[in-house]
Design a protein that fits this description.
With about 120 residues, this protein is mainly alpha-helical. The chain contains 2 helices and no strands. The radius of gyration is 27 Å and the shape is rod-shaped.
Length: about 120
């Protein structure tokens, strides 16, 4: 058994492979902004458009079983839209929180490393 090399399985780490953890705060911020400025507003607009079209269809089929079916579909659709909007908001918050968390952790680690002085005979002089 040899322990002085990587296993060849593509593992990362400091032995020349890719880093174990990488973060891109700018990309996280851009993704959160896309959710906030494009996905959430456009999802809301699409939901309102579908609601008005369904309401018109329900009125057109008044007295028919189709109207009741469309009303059930509309209720289900509205619930799904609310769930999707909540999920988008959650993802946006998580992206922003993760970017802040990693930045804070990086600054803390830098401060700790900067505070450590190597043991050296040169520092005595």
């Amino acid at each position: 058994m040899r322990l002085n090399q990587l296993d060849g399985g593509g593992g990362g780490g400091s032995a020349g492979g890719s880093p174990d953890l990488a973060t891109a705060p700018a990309k996280k911020k851009a993704a959160a902004n896309t959710i906030e400025n494009e996905l959430e507003p456009n999802t809301g607009k699409a939901a309102k458009w579908a609601d008005s079209a369904t309401t018109a269809a329900v009125a057109g089929f008044a007295g028919w079983a189709t109207a009741a079916g469309l009303k059930t579909v509309e209720t289900t659709w509205d619930k799904q839209v609310r769930t999707l909007l909540a999920r988008l908001a959650s993802e946006k918050t998580a992206l922003r929180g993760t970017a802040l968390s990693f930045s804070g952790q990086e600054l803390d680690t830098r401060a700790r490393i900067a505070g450590v002085r190597p043991a050296s005979n040169i520092t005595r002089y």
